[in-house]
Write a structure and sequence with these properties.
With about 800 residues, the chain is mainly beta. The protein contains nine helices and 66 strands. The strands form 17 sheets. Strands 3-66-65-64 form a four-stranded antiparallel beta sheet. A four-stranded antiparallel beta sheet has the order 4-31-30-29, with no helix packed on it. Strands 5-6-7-8 form a four-stranded antiparallel beta sheet, with no helix packed on it. The longest helix has 15 residues, at about 110-125. The radius of gyration is 31 Å and the shape is globular. Mean pLDDT is about 90; it is low at about 535-540.
């Protein structure tokens, strides 16, 4: 037993098992060991670290959180286990969570972070392969005993366990393929069914588990073969959105309630409507059959529950229950009917259909379900409770983090687990008796948007009332900005990260004033606030332009900003002197930057398709030219030469030598040029045309060297050392030789060509996971388990991203190796 504990807490053993036999075999080995080991077993590893069966359980739990990812990437086992275990009970994890009395890091046997660090030292000594370290805790608790069923891309609206409990069905807001069936034991999606054109609002299993019924917002009911996925019956034309479905106990009938105040009884075998139940005065929200099959209960937004004779369709009883009845359920013995409500759970005895008492206290419950004849499970907006119906006491209360949307719950037939829907597309199956994981700080719980400068190595994350600044060290510093930053507007950073600038607004007695605030990037102290007195001739909105653009010169001596419609202001940073007011645009400015040498301020107006370059010394216009600036920007500047390239909607590429003011027009497309790229020395230019081609041009001669055809329209391009990289609207990045024009690689996923050219690491955004590549390499060296909605790789190897599968989760990662 001692040897087994030592072996299965050794990272080299775990990695070998995963690599040679697979993650499922590793999970099985941990399970078998736990079945053999007595709970009191203890072994002391190196450095006085004591491990036990609990250690194995936590390793197994960490494995389950990333099992799907690890099946595809077993080489990432150390990365996943380290990031889960290190942050589970490390003392510094407490800073990222709301305070709580009992937390993993305060437990007397907190040791998993010590084990993880021991593994890190082993890896550093023996295994140089790259990996991603999470610098913040990841979502998902090791002791919460949760399964995460991933696959839906939109809000999951309904969920139901099969009668045996072996399968789970879920319906969502996805656009098609919005009905899924899952294996509860493994969490694997076993079937994806077409579902409905609109969102699925309810799903129900037949008593024998062979059929599924679904109802949708598009006023239709569908019956499916749960084994083959075949559509058996489609019943369109319901009076309103189908809100609730229930099979009769013998499986012969299906009841469907809808927002048209109607309930229909449908013969399952034929799909024929046998009876229509009318009487509710507002939308029907829920339906349930009595275990005898003789009665049907319905609840509605008219504040009543009604009982119907199934054979005759007559209304047997009307029960007043408050503002509305969102859910109802019969006890298995048929003696009781429980109603969801806004002021507790009314309990009705079914012998006389009399309301007897109210359980659960004065709080709203959106769903109720019986767990045997003496327990009720109920879902409120922020918690799930289990009630003893005899005493009326709440025997279990489990907090659930609100995601701002209505959630649905289904209880497993064994009464030990429940499935919970969520807006992030994930279905969570949770042990009722488990403790919820620590809750992240509200400020960082859900990040909706952020700004980052990969070159400067800094990211700015706005949160509720505060702003977090992430630097190259990976440290997150919290500050309250004064003046407040304009929400949703980009910042600017000097290339060395020592200076930050952001657009702000102050509200004064005579009206709002548009500002530019400067911060020291190292100390985050305020350096200066810049503003101008808006004159009557400036035009635009009283509240300034919608796009508040800011740019810093490469040498940190000046700042340019748009604080009035169509006007760029240029200030000297040292003393705040306004150097120039740069005019020339007749509409909103959508592009603002400096040329790489800092000699010119570049501004573009998408509405007029004009690009201007102002000389920073004189403020005079040096270049005024047509340019494509919408939907993409067809402008590029060489980083080591004073030249630019501009694409026109005429299909021409304009090449401009700034030092001599010489220009050359080259026809490169039959339609507009939507994107351009320049090599660092300015010798090569690449142009994407909306005709689907990319042309590589010698800028000295104007000769087209190569045509790089694409199967889909390219919309972004960059020229690197010996390579041209494109991104097209088929979701592929393509790599071509700049010397021969030959296709070198076709990479599925979103590729940013500029990132490939200029950064040490570049990434591919896919549907399931993040892939990271090294410069000049065309095979990924790193993977991360979540896809990203927004992500940047900062100088110094930091990755900051906003999750897609773990919706709006903030990730801060460090690339090792």
């Amino acid at each position: 037993m001692t040897d087994e504990l030592l072996s299965l807490t050794d990272i080299r053993t775990l990695e070998q098992l995963a690599r040679t036999q697979g993650v499922d075999a590793l999970d099985a080995a941990l399970g078998e060991a736990l079945a053999r080991l007595p709970e009191q077993a203890r072994v002391t590893r190196e450095e006085g670290l004591t491990v036990s069966p609990r250690t194995l359980r936590m390793i197994r739990s960490a494995l389950s959180l990333d099992a799907g990812f690890l099946r595809a990437h077993p080489e990432a086992l150390f990365q996943c286990l380290f990031n889960r275990l290190r942050w589970f009970d490390a003392p510094d994890a407490a800073a990222y969570f709301t305070p709580r009395e009992h937390a993993p890091w305060s437990a007397p046997d907190a040791h998993l972070h010590v084990l993880a660090e021991h593994w890190r030292r082993q890896r550093d000594a023996h295994n140089p392969t790259p990996w991603l370290e999470a610098l913040h805790p990841l979502r998902g608790g090791l002791e919460s005993r949760e399964q995460h069923f991933r696959g839906h891309r939109a809000h999951v609206l309904c969920v139901a366990f099969s009668p045996s409990g072996e399968r789970l069905a879920s319906g969502s807001w996805d656009d098609g393929n919005n009905l899924r069936i899952w294996d509860v034991a493994t969490g694997a999606c076993t079937q994806v069914l077409p579902g409905h054109e609109c969102e699925i609002l309810d799903v129900a299993w037949s008593p024998d588990g062979k059929l599924l019924a679904t109802g949708s917002r598009s006023h239709d009911v569908r019956l499916w073969d749960a084994t083959t996925g075949a559509l058996l019956h489609e019943l369109p034309g319901q009076e309103g959105r189908v809100t609730s479905l229930a099979f009769s106990p013998n499986g012969r009938l299906l009841a469907a309630g809808n927002l048209g105040w109607m309930v229909r009884l449908i013969e399952v075998a034929s799909g024929a409507v046998l009876r229509e139940l009318t009487g509710h005065e507002q939308s029907v929200l829920c339906v349930a059959f009595h275990p005898s099959g003789h009665f049907l209960a319905t609840g509605a937004s008219d504040g009543t529950a009604r009982i119907w004779n199934v054979e005759t369709g007559e209304q047997v009883a009307r029960i007043e229950a408050g503002p509305q009845v969102p859910s109802l359920a019969f006890s298995p013995d048929g003696a009781w009917l429980a109603l969801g409500g806004y002021d507790g759970i009314p309990l009705v005895e079914t012998q006389g259909w009399t309301r007897v008492r109210t359980l659960g206290g004065a709080r709203p419950y959106s769903q109720v379900a019986w767990m045997g004849n003496e327990r009720l499970g109920a879902l409120s907006y922020d918690r799930l409770v289990v009630l003893d119906t005899r005493s009326g006491e709440i025997s279990r209360s489990r907090p659930q983090e609100s995601d701002g949307h209505e959630r649905r719950v289904a209880f497993h037939p064994d009464g030990q687990r429940f499935a919970l829907t969520a807006v992030d597309g994930v279905v969570r199956v949770i042990d009722i008796a488990s403790e919820p994981p620590p809750e992240p700080l509200p400020e960082l719980a859900r990040v909706r948007d952020f700004w980052a400068s990969p070159e400067a190595g800094v990211a700015v994350i706005p949160a509720a009332g505060v702003t977090f600044i992430l630097g190259r060290s990976g440290q997150m510093r919290q500050m309250t900005l004064e003046p407040h930053a304009m929400p949703g507007q980009p910042w600017a950073a000097s290339p060395d990260g020592k200076l930050l600038a952001y657009p702000a607004r102050a509200y004064e007695e005579d009206g709002p004033r548009e500002l530019v605030a400067l911060l020291d990037g190292e100390t985050l102290s305020s350096l200066r606030t810049l503003s101008v007195e808006p004159g009557p001739s400036e035009g635009g909105s009283r509240f300034g332009p919608q796009e508040r653009l800011v740019a810093l010169s490469p040498d940190r001596t000046s700042v340019a900003a748009v604080v009035e419609e169509g006007v760029v202001r240029l200030w000297r940073i040292a003393d705040g002197t306004l150097l120039h007011t740069l005019r020339g645009h007749a509409g909103s400015i959508s592009l603002l930057c400096f040329t790489p040498d800092g000699a010119y301020v570049v501004s573009g107006c998408a509405s007029s398709s004009r690009l201007l370059l102002h000389d920073t010394r004189s403020g005079a216009i040096a270049v005024d030219t047509p340019a494509v600036l919408e939907l993409t920007v067809a402008y590029a500047a060489a980083s080591r030469a004073p030249c630019i390239a501009v694409g026109r909607d005429s299909g021409e590429l304009e090449l401009i030598e700034l030092a001599t003011a010489s220009r050359r027009l080259v026809r490169v497309a039959e339609a507009e040029v939507v994107a351009v790229g320049l090599s660092e020395d300015g010798a090569l230019a690449a142009a994407c045309g909306s005709d689907g081609g990319v042309r590589l041009i010698d800028t000295r001669t104007g000769v087209i060297l190569h045509e790089l055809p694409h199967p889909a329209n390219p919309f972004n391009v960059a020229v690197g050392d010996g390579v041209v990289i494109t991104q097209a609207d088929d979701g592929h990045g393509r790599f071509f030789s700049s010397s021969t024009g030959a296709l070198l690689a076709d990479v599925p996923g979103f590729v940013d060509p500029d990132e490939v050219v200029h950064q040490e690491h570049w990434m591919v955004l896919g549907e399931e996971e993040l892939a990271i590549y090294r410069r000049q390499e065309l095979a990924p060296s790193l993977f991360f388990h979540d896809a990203m909605e927004q992500v940047f790789i900062l100088r110094g190897g930091l990755v900051v991203g906003r999750g897609r599968n773990e919706k709006d989760a903030l990730y801060v990662l460090r690339i090792h190796g």
